[in-house]
Amino acid sequence: MDRKSKIVIAVFALVVVGIVITEIVRPRPINWRPSYTSVDKIPFGCFVLYNELPSIFPNSEIETVDKSVYDVLIDRDSSLTSNYMFINEYIDLDQQETNQILDYVDRGNTVFIAATGFGWELMDTLNIDFGADYSLKEGTTILDLTHEKFEKEEFKLSRGVFNSYFTSVDSIRTTILGHISYTIENYLDGEPDEEVTKPNLIKTRFGKGHFIISTTPQAYSNYYMLKGNSDYVAHTFSYLQDADVLYWDNYKKSGRVFIDSPMRFVLNQVSLKWAYYLSILGILLFVIFKGKREQRIIPIIEPLKNSSVEFAQAVGSLYHQNKDYTDLINKKINYFLAHIRSQYHIETAQINEKTIQLLAAKAGKDIQETKVLIEYILKLKNKNAHTEQESIELNKKITAFKQ
C-alpha cells in the first residue's frame, strides 16, 4: 500500500471516529413523542403514573397487561372485581375486543379510557362521539371537574394538548364529570377570540358497570404529573370502584416496543448499533482495498467478426474492379423487385401504372417519387450497357425509397 492510500485511510478513520464521539457526547434532544407506556420517562410517557398506582389504589393488585384485551378478559378470574385502565392517544379496539369489554363492564366492572378515540364499534354502542379544535399555535388549556368537592380547582395544560372533547353522549346513561376550556383565536381584524368550554370527562353506565372516559390522555403523562397536575389524576381515579385487581394496559400503546428479531434489538441499543455499523464499515474497507490489490486481470475477449459484411464488401470490390456495371445493375434491380414482392406482396412480372399506385400506397411514399424510381428501373432494364454513374444513381434512388 502506497503512502497516499495510507493517508486517505487515516483521514477517513479520523472522520469516522470524530462522528462517533460527537454522537456519544452531544446532549440528546427531548423526545416529545406520545408513548404512554409504563417504562418511558419521556414527557408523554406514563412512568410516573404507573409507579404511583399502588398508592392511589392501595387495595388493588396492579397487573400489567402485555397481550391482547381479548386474551386477558377470556382468561381472567371472574370471581374478582376489577378495573381496566387504557391510556393512549388512540385505542384501537377490534370487534372481538369490543364485545369482550362490553361483556366485562356489563358484569359489574369498570373500564377507564383516556384517549381521543377507541374504535367505531364501542363508540356506536355507547352512543358517544368525539371532536377536536386544532390550532396553529399552542395555547393554555384548562381542565376542571364538576363534583362539588373539586369544582373550584383548575388544572392548566400548555403543551401537546389537542383540545379534544365529546360532541355527543347518551344523556340517559351518562354523567358529565369534567370540562375542557380553551381559546380559539380569531385571525380576522376586529373579531374577538372565542372562549370554548366542552365536556372532556364522562361516566356512562353499561349493564352493572361503568365506562369512565377522558378525551385528554396528555393529563396522565409524566410531563403534567410532575407539573403539579397530579391531583387532577387522583380526582378522576376516585370515580373508579374499589376493586381486587387493576389491569394496566401496556399492550395498546403507541410507544410499545416491538422486538421480533435479534437484529431489531441490536439496532435499538445505541452501543450495539454503533458497533454493528463500524463492523460493516470495516468489512467494506477491507473488501475495497484488499480486492483492489489482488484482483486478477480480466482477459480481453475480441468480439466475433461479421463475416457477412466482409463478404458483401468483397463482392462489391470484385464488381467495381471488373467494371461490370450492367450485371451489377441487373442484380440490384432483381433484388429490389424481390423486396417489393416479399415486403408488399405486389406482382412485378408486369409493371404498369396500377403497380406504381399500389406500391406507393403500401410503402407510404409519394406517387411521383415512386413513379420516377420505377421508370428509371424500366429504363435501365431496356439498355444493354450501363455506366458507373447509372449504378450510383440507381443505388441512391433505391436507398431513398427504402428509408
Q: What report would you give on this structure?
A:
With 403 residues, this protein is an alpha/beta fold. The chain contains 14 helices and 11 strands. The radius of gyration is 44 Å and the shape is elongated. The chain crosses the membrane at residues 274-291.
Characteristic terms for this protein:
Rossmann fold, 2 domains, two-stranded antiparallel ribbon, membrane, alpha/beta, transmembrane helix, 403 residues
Question: What is the compact description of this entry?
Answer:
With 403 residues, this protein is of the alpha/beta class.
Structural class: alpha/beta
Strand proportion: 15-25%
CATH architecture annotation of the largest domain: 3-Layer(aba) Sandwich
The count of β-strands is: 11
How many domains is the backbone divided into? Answer: 2
CATH fold call of the largest domain: Rossmann fold
In which order are the strands of the major sheet placed? Answer: 1-11-2-3-10-9-8-5-6
Taking the sheet with the most strands, its summary is: 9 strands, mixed
Shape designation: elongated
Question: With helices defined by DSSP (H or I, 4 residues minimum), what is the helix count?
Answer: 14
N- to C-terminal distance:
58 Å
The ordered H/E elements are HHEHEHEHEEEEEEEHHEHHHHHHH
Give the class-level CATH name of the largest domain: Alpha Beta
Stretches where pLDDT is under 50 for at least 5 consecutive residues are: none
Helix % is: 40-55%
What is the radius of gyration? 44 Å
Q: How confident is the prediction overall: mean pLDDT?
A: 84
Protein name: DUF4350 domain-containing protein
Pfam family, one: DUF4350
Transmembrane segments: 274-291
Keywords: Membrane, Transmembrane, Transmembrane helix
